[in-house]
Amino acid sequence: MQQQQEFDKKKVLPIGIGVFALLILIISWSSMTVTINSGQAGVLFRLLDKGVDTETTYSEGFHFILPWNKMFVYDVRQLEVTETMDVLSSNGLEINVELSVWYQPSYSELGKLHQEKGQNYLGTVVKPSIRSATRSVIGRYTPEQIYSSKRDAIQSEIYEETRDLLISQYVQINEVLVRDITLPTTLKMAIENKLKQEQESLEYEFKLEKATKEAQRIAIDAKGKAKANDILNASLTDKILREKGIEATLKLAESPNAKIVIIGNSKDGMPLILGDSK
Predict the structure, then answer these.
(1) Which CA distances in Å does 234 have to 182, 220, 230, 231, 237?
(2) Residue 80, beta-bridge partner list
(3) Model-level pTM?
(4) In this structure, is residue 109 part of a structural domain?
(5) Statement to judge: residues 226 and 254 lie in one domain
(6) How far are the Cα atoms of 22, 169, 170, 234, 265 from residue 109, in angstroms, in the given order?
(7) Residue 14 and residue 69 in one domain
(8) 3-state SS string over 59-127?
(9) Which of 75, 99, 164, 209 is most buried per CB count within 10 Å?
């Protein structure tokens, strides 16, 4: 009987150990496996080693890790943040700006981003950089420039300054879009009236310049005609006129349809033509 009990203990003990190990495996399975979905990447924290693994960025897929380590998963696709803020123009007037920024964490430096900035890098790094760049850029322009002609330049400058601020923070800026710029109502109306007056002034100057050029053209044309007449009159002597008259008379006399009577002109002897073929 005693031998049978010893035999049962020897048989049950390995089974118990196996069941216990299986339970441990089942319990710890969730902490030993990580699935990184599409558009994501992971950063591994090694508890018993050097902490955050800044050298390796874990890609999409299924990964085994030691149960005492932890994988931090980041969205590495292009993300969007919208900011609305009140900023001051170059002359101290308050302007409301709404813009969207397209950004994403630097894939190859995700470990450094996690170690130095953490998962809330949007609030601690991205948004403050956007606000700082926007205030800096808007502060260089007057409300008239912002409202009328400089929006594209402002958008480009905000992008460049935000990019420069974040490039050392392991965040990539893809685009900045200025969605709306709102001025105080009274200021907006004043700018619109000023722009309207400037447009009317430009139209008046254009019409005046056009009229002036037309008057100059007419004067030049008249002067040219007068000069041509002077030259022609100076060249038409009595002899030339008489010769031209004779040539014309001869041509008419040679016409088969003409019946011509010629008498001498009492002034200069030039022939006169009377009658016709009818």
Answers:
(1) 74, 21, 6, 5, 7
(2) 102
(3) 0.59
(4) yes
(5) no
(6) 38, 9, 6, 94, 113
(7) yes
(8) CCEEEECCCCCEEEEEECCCEEEEEEEEEECCCCCEEEEEEEEEEEECHHHHHHHHHHCCCCHHHHHHH
(9) 99
Phi-psi category of 269—alpha, beta or left, where left has phi over 0 and alpha has psi -120 to 50?
left
Partnered with residue 101 across adjacent β-strands are: 81, 176
Of 214 and 258, more confident: 214
Residue 147 lies in a domain: yes
CA atoms within 13 A on the CB side of 133: 25
**Whole-angstrom Cα distance, residue 202 to residue 14?**
99
| Predicted pLDDT of residue 99 | 93
Assigned domain for 188 exists = no
Report which of residues 28 and 80 the model is more confident about. Answer: 80
Same domain, 246 and 263: yes
The answer to whether residue 29 is domain-embedded is yes
Structural domain boundaries enclosing 142: 79-183
Number of domains in the chain: 4
